[in-house]
């Protein structure tokens, strides 16, 4: 019988084969198998070192393991990563060949190198991959003092040089994430290299070795165990080194890692998703914390610490992260969590880990119904598009998202049953919302589109038809969010029938009048037979169908599918004979005194009234070109966010026309301004002593995105209607809100010379739907000129 330590690598291969082929009561589970493999290779290698005469301490030659063997997480077909250290002795190459060749001849995968201590430290300072490996170096045989000396020197050099190579670490990590995708949300994840995979845990360890962050949390270490167990079984069952878990292998592997009694590969996929999300979150937070903890040298050490820059009420930017103002309290400010999230998405800045922890510890559940401000912040978050993905993920990892939406637990990490889906169900919902944010200008109710996109599959994971289950759930959610009853009905109908258009268009003849009748009858039944509401619902379902397809996976939204669905929705809308425009009502009678005062002395009047969630700013001033843009600009100048606005022209005792403007507002930061100051600024603007463009430009820069890639998610759009009630032509602008937008748009309209009869402004989260009644009937060329001016004003952005 051959002795394992005799030097024959074939004996190592045979012993390894016995471990992998064991069964019955001798079968090794994945953790036990890894431990046995590490012990097996350690024993063979240390015995080989002894046979070759490496000697002990002071011998000047040592063998160390890096990589999987160095970390003691050797999987069945992991390569051996070995480094032969020496103090410059002669004949080292011959000794190395005596060590490596038996392994090569036996077909064992081997990465190897021969280094002096100086060479090891040098390569660690110039090659990032080699540095990360040497940080995990573990002594196998020979001179232990030499191994320890090199290990300590490499770690010291790593800590000393981390500032200069940190950007390389971030760039390499980001590129790896981009190339390999998310472990948590992919149907066939890369367990080692993907975002949230095993290499991210090694990254956290490396940052901890540099003394920039703490060691991985217990949650991350539990995730590591699951990822390693699955990778171990993947190697064992495939008979080779593989890191991508294919769907066809998952059932057997699920049984091997402890899911045999509770389900199938979908249970494993859900557990892997949760584990990978914990790792990904830990890696992302670790990189941010590490950057902030980098040692400061030279002139940088003399610079003042970052200041706290106000971003919104109770929200500041500090050190490149979104944090809480010193006096902010989630217990006193119900909308604070969502305001922090919306601000982070709007600015492109991450929420600091400390802020997330503080909010998780102190934020109570929102009362039912939510305050209006909380719903507005939710809509603002959902309207940011791609920027919301990481923000929602950070809220979910810290329990805050589940506190807002308890129903989310059923879809969290839930794998899809349909192979066309590339995301878990919860991530799919967020991705569909991202796509919906691009389509908000196609619908008259962008707020319902965004919420419907977020919740359209919320009924999955509970058994039964997910559309029917979801309809019931969103009724509860809509009421909890504080939506009006009619809007809850529309939202429920969206979720119940979100597959109606795609299923009907692809399974029936969309050009058949009977098909259109069938769709309309279904939707009339859902919303009580009101054709105007049916038209809104058709519009929403059309946009949701596109967003749902785009958020499912590549190739799902094809030109053929677009033609069928949009053709069917278009025929449905035509069959409804259009939708009448609802003219804004007359100004509130309570403003009669203001109107009379303006008519008497021509001086603008301003009045504030406060409610539970929003304040109303009423402005009365002599009608004339520039009146609306001046009032809107002064409101923006005082950091007031406009939720709705109405403009009407009236007369007082035949003494002249008076414009009455009412704005529903909330302060973007701090409290409401002094009405007298607002009135004073308005008088100065109208008198020419306050240059509004320059003053407003400074204010806009304060709220501009901090990074150039943070842009609006949907291009603005202009629509034209004929308002038969007033004889005016209606211009409707759909776009993405920003501070000062109403001023710029109304100023553009005024420059074109149009005569505004009335205006109605509505802000729905991050989206706006602004309608302007224009006297007369501008010709087509004039309309194009007006449209160009309005769109130019809508897309212009101040420099950050």
UniProtKB/TrEMBL annotation:
Keyword set, alphabetical order: Hydrolase, Magnesium, Multifunctional enzyme, Nucleotidyltransferase, Repeat, Transferase
Segments of this protein annotated with the region Uridylyltransferase: 1-310
Regulation of its activity: Uridylyltransferase (UTase) activity is inhibited by glutamine, while glutamine activates uridylyl-removing (UR) activity.
UniProt key word Acyltransferase: no
HD domain mapped to chain residues: 425-547
SUPFAM superfamilies with a match to the protein in the record: ACT-like, HD-domain/PDEase-like, Nucleotidyltransferase, Nucleotidyltransferase substrate binding subunit/domain, Poly A polymerase C-terminal region-like
InterPro entries found in the cross-reference section: ACT-like_dom_sf, ACT_dom, HD/PDEase_dom, HD_domain, NT_sf, PII_UdlTrfase/GS_AdlTrfase, UTase/UR
Family label: Belongs to the GlnD family.
Function: Modifies, by uridylylation and deuridylylation, the PII regulatory proteins (GlnB and homologs), in response to the nitrogen status of the cell that GlnD senses through the glutamine level. Under low glutamine levels, catalyzes the conversion of the PII proteins and UTP to PII-UMP and PPi, while under higher glutamine levels, GlnD hydrolyzes PII-UMP to PII and UMP (deuridylylation). Thus, controls uridylylation state and activity of the PII proteins, and plays an important role in the regulation of nitrogen metabolism.
UniProt name for this protein: Bifunctional uridylyltransferase/uridylyl-removing enzyme
Source organism of this protein record: Pseudonocardia autotrophica (Amycolata autotrophica)
Gene (name only): glnD
């Amino acid at each position: 019988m051959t002795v394992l330590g005799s030097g024959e690598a074939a004996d190592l291969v045979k012993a390894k084969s016995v471990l992998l082929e064991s069964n019955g009561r001798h079968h090794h589970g994945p953790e036990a198998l890894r431990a046995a493999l590490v012990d097996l290779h350690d024993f063979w290698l240390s015995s080989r070192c002894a046979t070759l005469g490496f000697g002990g301490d002071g011998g000047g030659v040592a063998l160390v393991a890096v990589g999987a063997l160095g970390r003691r997480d050797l999987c069945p077909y992991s390569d051996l990563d070995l480094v032969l250290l020496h103090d410059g002795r002669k004949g080292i190459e011959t000794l190395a060949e005596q060590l490596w060749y038996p392994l090569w001849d036996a077909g064992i995968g081997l990465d190897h190198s021969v280094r002096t201590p100086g060479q090891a430290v040098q390569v660690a300072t110039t090659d990032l991959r080699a540095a990360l490996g040497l940080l995990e170096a573990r002594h196998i045989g020979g001179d232990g003092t030499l191994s320890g000396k090199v290990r300590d020197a490499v770690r010291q050099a790593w800590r000393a040089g981390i500032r200069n190579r940190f950007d390389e670490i971030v760039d390499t990590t980001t590129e790896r994430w981009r190339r390999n995708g998310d472990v948590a949300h992919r149907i066939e994840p890369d367990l080692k290299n993907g975002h949230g995979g095993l290499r991210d845990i090694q990254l956290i360890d490396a940052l901890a070795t540099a003394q920039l962050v703490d060691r991985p949390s217990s949650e991350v270490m539990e995730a590591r165990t699951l990822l390693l167990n699955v990778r171990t079984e993947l190697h064992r069952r495939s008979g080779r080194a593989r890191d991508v878990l294919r769907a066809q292998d998952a059932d057997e592997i699920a049984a091997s890692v402890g899911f045999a009694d509770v389900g199938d590969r979908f249970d494993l996929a859900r557990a892997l998703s949760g584990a990978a999300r914990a790792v990904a979150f830990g890696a992302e937070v670790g990189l941010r914390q590490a950057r902030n903890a980098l040692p400061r040298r030279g002139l940088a050490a003399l610079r003042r610490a970052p200041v706290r820059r106000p971003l919104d009420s109770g929200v500041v930017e500090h050190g490149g992260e979104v944090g809480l103002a010193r006096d902010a309290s989630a217990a006193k400010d119900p909308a604070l969590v969502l305001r922090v999230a919306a601000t982070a998405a709007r600015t492109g800045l991450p929420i600091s880990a400390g802020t997330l922890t503080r909010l998780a510890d102190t934020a109570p559940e929102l009362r039912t119904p939510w305050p209006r401000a909380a719903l507005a912040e939710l809509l603002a978050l959902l309207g940011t598009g791609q920027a919301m993905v990481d923000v929602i993920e950070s809220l979910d990892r810290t329990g805050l998202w589940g506190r807002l939406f308890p129903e989310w637990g059923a879809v969290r990490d839930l794998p899809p049953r349909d192979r066309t889906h590339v995301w878990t169900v919860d991530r799919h919902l967020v991705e569909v919302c991202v796509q919906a944010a691009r389509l908000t200008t196609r619908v008259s109710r962008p707020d319902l589109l965004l919420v419907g996109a977020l919740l359209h599959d919320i009924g999955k994971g509970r058994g039964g038809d997910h559309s029917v289950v979801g309809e019931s759930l969103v009724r509860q959610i809509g009421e909890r969010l504080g939506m009006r009853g009619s809007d809850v009905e529309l939202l429920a109908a969206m979720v119940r029938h979100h597959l109606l258009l795609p299923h009907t268009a692809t399974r029936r003849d969309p050009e058949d009048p009977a098909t259109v009748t069938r769709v309309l009858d279904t939707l009339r039944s859902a919303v009580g037979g009101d054709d105007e509401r049916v038209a809104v619902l058709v519009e929403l379902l059309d946009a949701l169908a596109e967003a749902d397809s785009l958020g499912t996976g590549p190739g799902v939204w094809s030109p053929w599918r677009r033609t069928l669905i949009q053709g069917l929705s278009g025929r449905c809308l035509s069959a409804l004979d259009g939708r009448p425009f609802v003219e804004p009502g007359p100004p509130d009678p309570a403003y009669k005194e203001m109107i009379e005062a303006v008519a008497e002395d021509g001086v603008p009047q301003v009045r504030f009234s406060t409610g539970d969630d929003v304040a109303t700013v009423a402005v009365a001033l002599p009608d004339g070109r520039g009146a609306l843009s001046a009032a809107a600009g002064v409101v923006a100048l005082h950091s007031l966010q406009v939720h709705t606005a109405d403009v009407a022209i009236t007369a007082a005792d035949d003494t002249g026309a008076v414009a009455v403007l009412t704005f529903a507002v909330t302060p973007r930061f701090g409290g409401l301004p002094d009405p007298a100051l607002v009135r004073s600024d308005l008088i100065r603007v109208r008198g020419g002593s306050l240059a509004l463009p320059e003053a407003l430009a400074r204010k806009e820069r304060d709220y501009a995105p901090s990074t150039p890639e943070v842009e609006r998610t949907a291009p603005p759009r202009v629509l034209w209607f004929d308002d038969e009630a007033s004889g005016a032509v209606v211009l409707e602008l759909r776009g993405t809100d920003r501070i000062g937008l109403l001023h710029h748009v109304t100023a553009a309209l005024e420059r074109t010379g149009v005569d505004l009869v009335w205006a109605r402004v509505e802000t729905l989260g991050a989206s706006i739907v602004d309608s302007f009644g224009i006297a007369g009937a501008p010709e087509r060329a004039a309309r194009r000129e007006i449209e160009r001016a309005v769109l130019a004003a809508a897309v212009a952005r101040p420099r950050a």
